[in-house]
Structure to design on (707 residues):
C-alpha cells in the first residue's frame, strides 16, 4: 500500500534513452486496500428540552469522524432563476486589506450576473461579475455612498462551461487592486481608495445575486474564501488546488461547499459566517464532482449528510408521526477514496443514544384546587389566604420523569394565562398526585382578579421530549371574596324586669347582627364564655347567667373576631350600637347617714306625744323601705334624693329608755338590706313617759314668825 512508484525508459529514433520515475505535474496514485473505519460516532437530537430524546418534527443528528478521508468533492449549482446564497450582515465592515477567491463555471454568462455582491443598496456595494455588460469579461467594482465606482476590469473574455479560479485583492497601503485568473495577474488598478470598511455595516450580502435587478448566476461555484489581508500571487497559486483548514492567517471565512445536501453551507473558520441557500433544492443543488459516497439511514429513512470539515460529517433526519418509538436505530455506510467499503456502523462510540417518543402524556383532569394559609374555606379565596395548592395527577409513565407541568389560570371570562413557572416532574412524582404551590402574590396578579369573580385552573403536561397534553379543567372553582363582614347592630340586656340590671342568677344576653353570613362566632360576658345561639338571618346571641364572684358594675362583653363564610375576618366589638349596657349588683343596699331625733325641745328626749323621726339615706336607688320604732310600724316619707324619714308618735304604752328602731330597705335588684338598728352619727333619743316626783316639800317665809 502507499504511493505507487513507476519508472519509464524512453528511447528516441536515434537510440537516445532517458528514464523517468515521477510525473512532471506532481500527480500521484495511492494504492489502498484497507477498509476505512469510523473513529467517532455520536447521536443527539435538537430537542430543546433533552437532546437524548426526540419527538415528532425534531431533527436527529449523527456526527461521525472516519480514520481516513472519505470526503466527496461537491460544488454548488445555481439555476439562474432565483438561486442565491445569503450571508450574515457586516462580514467585511472592518476590512481594509481584502481578498476574495472562488472557483466558478458559468452555464450562461448573463450580463452583470454576480459571483459576489456585498452591500446595503445600489448606492453602497462591491461586486464581482464574470461578464460586465454581456462581454464575458470579469470586472470587480466597489463604491460608497455619494461616490462613483472604482473598478478592476480584465481585458480577455471567458468561455462558458469552463471552470476558472478567480481572485480579487485590495492592498490598503498601496491603494492597489488586482485580479488573478487561474493564478495569473490579469488586471490591476493602482488608484483604489475605497475599502470594504468604507461600505459600513452591509446588510445585503450575496453569492449569485445582485443588489440591482440583474440576472441571477446560472452556473456553479466552489471553494469560496474571504480574507482580511492581501494575498500575494504565490499564496493564491499555492491554494488553488488545496482545501483550507479554516485556521489560516487572516482568513475571515471559508465555504468549501462540500456539504453535499441541506440548506446551509458552513463557514469552516471560527467566525461561523454560515451561508443560507435561498430557493435552492437542498439535494439537487449540490453537484457531485469526485470522491467517495456516504449514506446513512435513521429509523430506516434516508438521512441527509453534510460535511462539517474534511473528515467530519453530519447525518440528519427529521422525525415524523409514523416513525417507530423507542431507541433510534441507524446505519452508516461509507467508502474511502480508493473505493474500499467500511463496515456498516449501527452504534455510537460513546454510548450516546436518542429515544423517540411520539406519544403524548395520558389524558388527565386537574384535581383539587385549595387556598392555603390563613382561614381555609373550600372553593373560596379570602383576604387571609397566603397560597394556592393545585393537585395534578401524574400517570405511571417513565417518559414523564424530567417532564414538566405548566399550570394555567383565568378569572371570570378572561383568557387562560400561565400561573407561575413550569414545574419539573421528579421521579418521585411519577404515579402520584403532584401538588404544585403558588403564592398569594401570584394569585392576586392574575389578569382580572376581582371581588366575586371565580378562579379557574387547568394544566398542560409535557413528557421528557416535550410531547404535550392539555388536561381537563379542575372542577374546583375559587370564588374571590376578600371583603370582611361588618357588625350592623349589637344590643345588651338581662332577663330582670329592669333589663339594664342583673344580679346573681340573672341571664345577660348580647344580641348582634352582621351584614353577611358568618361562621359561628365567640363572645365573652363578664370575661366568661357566653353560650352562642344562631337566631337566623345573620343574627346571633351570646348569653351568660351571672354568678357569685362576678365583678360588680357595668358588665363587660367582647365579641370575638367575626369571620364570614368565606373566611374573611374582622375585629369584634366590646360596645353596643344602641348604647345599651347591663350593670351587675350583688351587694345588699346600705344607708348613710342614719339619724334619730324627736320633736321635743330637747331632740335627744321624747315623752308621750312626742314624734320620733329616723332619717336615712340610701347609697343606691331603693325600691322599698320598711321601718319600725319601738317595734311599732313607722310612717315613711320620701324626701327625695334617696332620703327618707320614718316617723312615730310615742305613746304611754311604749317602753321607756333609748328608743329602738329597725329599718329594712330593698334596692332595684330586690336585694334586701340587713336590718339597720343603729345610727351612724351617734344620735339617740330617750323616751321618758314617767312624771317627775318630789321627795321633800318644805314651805316657809322670811317672816320672823314664819307667817
Amino acid at each position: 500500500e502507499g504511493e505507487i512508484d513507476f519508472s519509464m525508459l524512453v528511447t528516441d529514433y536515434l537510440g537516445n534513452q532517458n528514464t523517468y520515475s515521477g510525473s512532471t505535474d506532481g500527480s500521484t496514485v495511492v494504492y489502498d486496500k484497507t477498509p476505512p473505519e469510523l473513529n467517532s460516532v455520536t447521536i443527539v437530537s435538537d430537542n430543546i428540552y433533552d437532546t437524548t430524546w426526540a419527538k415528532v418534527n425534531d431533527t436527529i443528528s449523527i456526527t461521525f469522524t472516519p480514520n481516513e478521508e472519505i470526503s466527496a468533492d461537491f460544488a454548488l449549482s445555481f439555476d439562474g432563476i432565483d438561486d442565491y446564497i445569503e450571508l450574515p450582515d457586516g462580514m467585511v465592515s472592518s476590512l481594509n486589506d481584502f481578498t476574495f477567491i472562488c472557483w466558478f463555471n458559468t452555464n450562461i454568462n448573463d450580463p452583470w450576473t454576480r459571483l459576489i455582491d456585498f452591500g446595503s443598496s445600489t448606492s453602497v456595494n462591491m461586486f464581482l461579475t464574470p461578464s460586465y455588460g454581456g462581454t464575458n469579461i470579469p470586472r470587480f467594482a466597489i463604491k460608497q455612498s455619494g461616490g462613483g465606482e472604482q473598478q478592476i476590469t480584465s481585458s480577455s473574455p471567458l468561455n462558458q462551461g469552463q471552470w476558472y479560479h478567480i481572485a480579487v485583492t485590495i492592498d490598503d497601503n498601496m491603494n492597489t487592486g488586482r485580479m488573478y485568473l487561474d493564478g495569473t495577474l490579469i488586471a490591476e488598478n493602482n488608484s483604489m481608495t475605497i475599502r470594504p470598511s468604507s461600505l459600513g455595516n452591509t446588510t445585503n450580502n450575496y453569492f449569485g445575486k445582485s443588489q440591482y435587478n440583474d440576472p441571477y448566476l446560472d452556473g456553479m461555484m466552489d471553494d469560496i474564501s474571504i480574507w482580511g489581508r492581501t494575498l500575494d500571487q504565490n499564496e493564491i497559486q499555492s491554494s488553488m488546488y488545496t482545501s483550507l483548514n479554516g485556521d489560516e492567517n487572516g482568513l475571515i471565512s471559508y465555504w468549501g461547499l462540500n456539504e453535499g445536501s441541506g440548506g446551509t453551507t458552513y463557514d469552516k473558520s471560527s467566525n461561523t459566517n454560515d451561508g443560507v441557500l435561498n430557493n435552492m433544492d437542498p439535494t439537487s443543488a449540490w453537484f457531485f464532482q469526485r470522491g467517495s459516497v456516504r449514506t446513512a439511514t435513521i429509523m430506516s429513512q434516508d438521512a441527509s449528510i453534510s460535511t462539517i470539515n474534511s473528515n467530519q460529517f453530519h447525518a440528519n433526519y427529521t422525525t415524523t408521526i409514523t416513525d417507530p418509538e423507542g431507541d433510534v436505530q441507524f446505519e452508516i455506510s461509507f467508502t474511502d477514496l480508493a473505493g474500499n467499503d467500511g463496515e456498516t456502523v449501527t452504534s455510537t462510540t460513546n454510548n450516546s443514544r436518542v429515544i423517540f417518543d411520539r406519544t403524548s402524556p395520558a389524558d388527565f383532569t386537574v384535581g383539587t384546587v385549595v387556598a392555603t394559609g390563613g382561614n381555609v374555606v373550600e372553593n373560596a379565596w379570602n383576604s387571609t389566604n397566603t397560597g394556592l395548592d393545585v393537585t395534578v395527577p401524574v400517570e405511571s409513565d417513565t417518559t414523564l420523569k424530567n417532564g414538566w407541568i405548566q399550570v394555567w389560570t383565568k378569572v371570570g371570562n378572561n383568557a387562560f394565562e400561565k400561573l407561575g413557572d413550569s414545574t419539573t416532574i421528579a421521579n418521585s412524582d411519577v404515579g402520584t398526585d403532584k401538588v404544585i404551590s403558588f403564592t398569594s402574590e401570584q394569585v392576586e396578579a392574575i389578569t382580572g382578579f376581582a371581588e366575586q369573580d371565580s378562579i379557574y385552573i387547568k394544566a398542560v403536561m409535557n413528557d421528557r421530549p416535550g410531547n404535550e397534553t392539555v388536561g381537563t379543567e379542575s372542577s374546583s372553582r375559587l370564588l374571590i371574596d376578600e371583603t370582611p363582614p361588618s357588625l350592623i347592630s349589637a344590643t345588651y340586656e338581662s332577663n330582670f324586669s329592669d333589663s339594664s340590671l342583673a344580679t346573681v342568677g340573672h341571664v345577660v344576653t348580647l344580641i348582634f347582627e352582621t351584614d353577611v353570613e358568618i361562621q359561628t362566632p365567640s363572645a365573652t360576658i363578664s370575661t366568661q364564655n357566653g353560650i352562642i345561639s344562631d337566631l337566623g338571618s345573620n343574627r346571633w346571641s351570646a348569653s351568660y347567667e351571672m354568678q357569685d364572684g362576678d365583678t360588680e358594675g357595668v358588665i363587660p362583653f367582647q365579641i370575638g373576631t367575626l369571620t364570614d363564610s368565606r373566611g374573611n375576618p374582622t375585629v369584634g366589638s366590646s360596645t353596643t350600637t344602641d348604647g345599651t349596657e347591663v350593670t351587675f349588683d350583688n351587694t345588699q343596699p346600705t344607708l348613710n347617714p342614719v339619724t334619730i331625733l324627736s320633736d321635743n325641745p330637747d331632740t335627744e328626749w321624747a315623752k308621750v306625744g312626742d314624734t320620733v323621726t329616723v332619717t336615712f339615706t340610701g347609697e343606691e336607688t331603693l325600691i322599698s323601705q320598711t321601718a319600725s320604732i319601738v317595734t311599732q310600724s313607722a310612717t315613711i316619707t320620701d324626701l327625695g334624693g334617696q332620703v327618707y324619714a320614718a316617723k312615730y308618735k310615742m305613746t304611754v304604752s311604749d317602753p321607756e329608755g333609748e328608743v329602738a328602731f329597725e329599718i329594712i330597705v330593698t334596692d332595684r335588684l330586690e336585694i334586701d338590706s340587713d336590718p339597720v338598728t343603729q345610727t351612724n352619727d351617734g344620735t339617740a333619743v330617750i323616751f321618758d313617759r314617767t312624771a317627775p316626783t318630789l321627795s321633800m316639800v318644805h314651805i316657809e317665809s322670811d317672816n320672823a314668825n314664819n307667817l
Notes: Residues 495 and 700 are 83 Å apart (CA to CA). Residues 487-584 form a domain with the Immunoglobulin-like fold (CATH 2.60.40.1930).
